[in-house]
Structure formats: C-alpha cells, structure tokens
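During the no-cost extension, the postdoctoral fellow (Dr. R.K.) reprocessed legacy sequence entries with the updated structure-token encoder. One reprocessed record is reproduced below for audit purposes.
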Amino acid sequence: MSHTPSRQDFDHYMTPNYSPQQVIPVRGEGSRLWDQEGREYIDFAGGIAVNSLGHCHPVLVDALKAQGEKLWHLANVFTNEPALNLAKALVERTFADKAFLCSSGGEANEAALKLARRWAVDHHGEHKDKIISFYQSFHGRTFFTVSVGGQPKYSQGFGPVPGGILHATYNDLESVRALVGDDTCAIMVEPMQGEGGIVPGTQDFLQGLRDLCDEHQALLIFDEVQTGVGRSGELYAYKNYGITPDILTSAKSLGGGFPIGAMLATDAVAKSLAIGTHGSTYGGNALASAVALAAVEFIDTPEVLEGVKKRHDLFREHLETINRKYGVFKEIRGMGLLMGAQMSDAFEGRAKDILPLAIEEGLMALIAGPNVLRMAPSLVIPEADIAEGMARLDRAIGRLVAAE
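Re-encoded structure tokens follow.
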C-alpha cells in the first residue's frame, strides 16, 4: 500500500533542525509550484537563491537526462568530461586559472579557507594563520565555516571553535585595518551579505580590502555562493565592482537546483592544493557538472544578465508601491535578483510573520534575519509572475498591517 507523506511525517522521521512550512510542494514549472492539494504558489524564494532558472527548466532537464543515460559518478582516481568542461567554462569566464569542484557552498568555503591557510604556510610559515571575516556574515555549516561566519548563534553549543579567526564590521574598513597584520593569511567577505540582511559592500570598502590584502601579503576570498552565477546581474558580483579576488567560491545558482559547488583560484594560490591535501567524494560528479555547465552557458549571456537587471528594477518598483501603501519597510536594497526589504521601526522583527501569510496568499518568500524580507527568484522569472506575486505580497502585508 502506497503512502502519501505528510508534514507530520517530517516531525516523526526527521531531525528537528528545520521547521518547514506546512505545505509540501510536489510539482514545479518555471516560477510556479503546486502542493499536494493542487494549490498554486509563485516562487520568490528560489530555493534560497538556488533555482536560478526556476523549476524544471528545459535546458537543465535536457542536460540531466542526456548525462543520466551516459555516466553518473566516478571516484576521483578518474576524471570525466562534464567536470572538465565545467571547469574550463568557469576558468575562461572569470579571473581564475583553476577550479576545484565539490557538492555545496559550505564545502567550497571550507576548501577556500583550507587553501588560504595552506598557501600561507607554504609561502610565509606557520605564524601566518589569521583569517578575518565579518560580523553577520555566513559562510556555511561546517564547523570551520560556521566559525568564520560572523553569527555566533550558529557555532555556539558545539564546543571550542577553531582559533585564528577574527571578525570586523562589514563596510567599515577601519575595523579591518585594526585587525590586519603580517600574521593575516586571508580576508573572507561576501560582496553582498546574504543571510546578514542583503547588505551590498560599498566600492571603497571592497577596494580597501583588496589593498589591505596586497599590503600584508594576504589572500582576498570572495564568498559568492549566494551572489554568483547571474544573481547580481553579472556572472559573478566581483565584476560589478571591478575588484579581483584571489579565491572565489560558488554554489547555489551554479547548479540551478542540482547540488554542486566550486572554488576558483589563481594559479599562484591553487598550487598549494597539492595531491592529497584536500578532496570531495562527489566533487566533479558527472551529473552535477553537466547540469551546472548548462546553467552557466545559459545564464552567462547578455539576454539573461540584462534581464536580471531589468527585473531588479521591477521588483524595486513593486516593493516601493507596497511600501507607500503600508509603510512597513525602512529600506529596499540588494543587487540583481537578490533583494531585501528591511522592516520599518513600527514592524521591527516582523519579517518572519509575513512568510506564513504569504503562503496563504500563494507566494513563497524568504527572510534574511528577523528584520529583512528576502527575495531570490528565478533569474528568468516572467514579468507577469512578478506582478502577480507582488499582488499576493500586497495582500499578505495588508493582513499583517490590519492585525496590528
């Protein structure tokens, strides 16, 4: 007898580290989803900036089907054509000379941090081990990355955190200058903080980090797990600033929904990741690589990237219209199709209360902390879906305001 899973099954069978919404989506097409009851939702969440081309985009489906009939996985004692093609595409489209493929953003950041430490040892000695990151940053859930991330709530309760990690204030160059020194091996930064509230880095701040790294012979790591692969309106956000890092990490939109991550680096740095120093069982998986290559080639076109910038303006216009009506937002910010609306003083901490109301109105959205409503939809979301989704958001916020 077949069993139809229910939301109660989650509480019964799965660890309680998540608290998902009560609806269970079962089918998606483009920027729309349908749940077990057949109810339709417009998706402004994008799997947390993952579903770069929406749900079941034919380009990705075709790539998955074609590769699925050829080769799925090999141990890393072999290489495979899709992995090589993806690495070539990423290198040729970015500053990088080498790519390391893995399975997630957390893995990509773990690799970046280990590489930075290894490079420092190789070139400067054991004393050069300090890593500077930023308060409110987020770099993954491995113990190393969660410790480098600037949100203690994610590392508390798991024992002593790794040493040699310092935190500065985002967009405050002087706070970095007070920490950096000859013992600094790397500065790790998101060009736009995602989980920390959708806060773009300023040009002067990010350029200042580049200059400090050059001055102190340290590496600049850009965490582009959330901003990468078209999300910012460029293939990678560093291109918006004209500032080149030494190491860059990528995931989320890279696979369009298929789990994959990548770390990109210059030749001078990548040499320190010598044979046996690091690895990933599923890194360079043929299925994932084939899908990611299709995503990168489709997204890295003038049509798609210019479309992201146009859709950014549409999202902003709609959010500003809603705000003129209800006065719930203090600031609307972001780049491309990673946008955040910070709640006004009267609705401080209430962003999370919008999500269940939005679900009831047929809209999926996100938060970035308790005070920022976050949106990370498909990069090719139709304008009609933007308009309808915003109409549903208007109704949800209207209900929030009416309940006051």
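DSSP finds 14 helices and 17 strands in the chain. The chain has two domains: 7-56+302-402, 71-299. The remaining legacy entries will be reprocessed before the final report is submitted.
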